[in-house]
Amino acid sequence: MKVAVVQMVSGIDLDANLEAAHGLLGQAARQGAELVVLPEYFCLMGQRDTDKLAIGEEFGTGPVQRFLADTARELGLWLVGGTLPLAVPPATVMDIPDQPLRVYNSSLVYSSTGQCVARYDKIHLFRFQHGAESYDESRVLCAGQQPALFELPSRDGHVWRIGLSICYDLRFAELYRTYAGAGADLLLVPSAFTFTTGECHWEVLLRARAIENLAFVAAAAQAGLHANGRRTWGHSMLVDPWGAVQAELAQGAGVVLADLSIERLKLLRGQLPALSHRVL
């Protein structure tokens, strides 16, 4: 199956980000991609964390979701909408003091007919303090509770089982082990890793998740200096189940594409049946 990950340098203008995403998705389609993954916050890298609240959509409606559905249908792609802010039901946040509004950081999957077939809300919320560099997603985000997989009947004749995750989730191996236990062939990681953490940890973690679960990993990233002053690491990549990087883009906007071979996955799992050797 030919898979593409889209790398972006999203800014503070929603319409401009959607236009840029559309152009890159069209590029992926022309190169024959069947599944395309957008990065975390492809639709907005705002000036403030609270900017996410202003564009939060009810699940099933809204301009960003219409864009994803229409583009998947137009280009005939399976499309993973990196992440977008989805509204949290009032009953979920009523017990949180002084914060009546929260959103989920959600990844939505659309089939080539434009139907939303899966949703994953980011479970692990990023918090990091390094001098003047400080992040705490819990200020505006509500954590998700459940892993999510979907199935993609590919042109190669295999029904791919695909596990969803987002950025900071990458540090929590138990999520990916859950997916491996459910038979996942491919793990998706749309991200906006900081430059500071990404420089040391990004590739190591991606390759580790591939190796320990004998699964392909597709990671779409934000990459560069954004209008809000944030700098992201980039290095979008596709990794095979042996931990080999099949394709990568260091910085800037672009498309990274590779053919994922189900035969290679089966071969490697047969040669090294580590998943069946688990004890704990």
Strand order of the largest sheet: 5-4-3-2-1-16
In percent, how helical is the residue content?
Answer: 25-40%
Please give the number of β-strands: 16
Number of separate helices: 7
Helix/strand order: EHEHHEHEEEEEEHEHEEEEEEH
Termini gap? 33 Å
Mean pLDDT: 95
Q: What does this entry look like structurally?
A:
Helix content is 27%, strand content 29%. With 280 residues, it is of the alpha/beta class. The strands form four sheets. A six-stranded mixed sheet has the order 5-4-3-2-1-16. It has a six-stranded mixed sheet with strand order 8-9-10-11-14-15, covered by helices on one side. The protein has a two-stranded antiparallel ribbon with strand order 6-7. Helix 1 runs parallel beside helix 3 (63-75). A hairpin with a 5-residue loop joins strand 14 and strand 15. The model has no long low-confidence stretch (mean pLDDT 95). The chain is built from seven helices and 16 strands.
List the topology elements.
Elements: E1 2-7, H1 14-30, E2 35-37, H2 51-54, H3 63-75, E3 78-87, H4 90-93, E4 103-110, E5 116-121, E6 127-130, E7 133-136, E8 149-153, E9 159-164, H5 173-181, E10 186-188, H6 195-213, E11 216-219, E12 223-225, E13 231-233, E14 236-239, E15 245-249, E16 254-259, H7 262-271
Parallel strand pairs: 1-2, 2-3, 9-10, 10-11
Antiparallel strand pairs: 1-16, 3-4, 4-5, 6-7, 8-9, 11-14, 12-13, 14-15
Task: Briefly characterize the structure.
With 280 residues, the protein is an alpha/beta fold.
Keywords:
16 strands, six-stranded mixed sheet
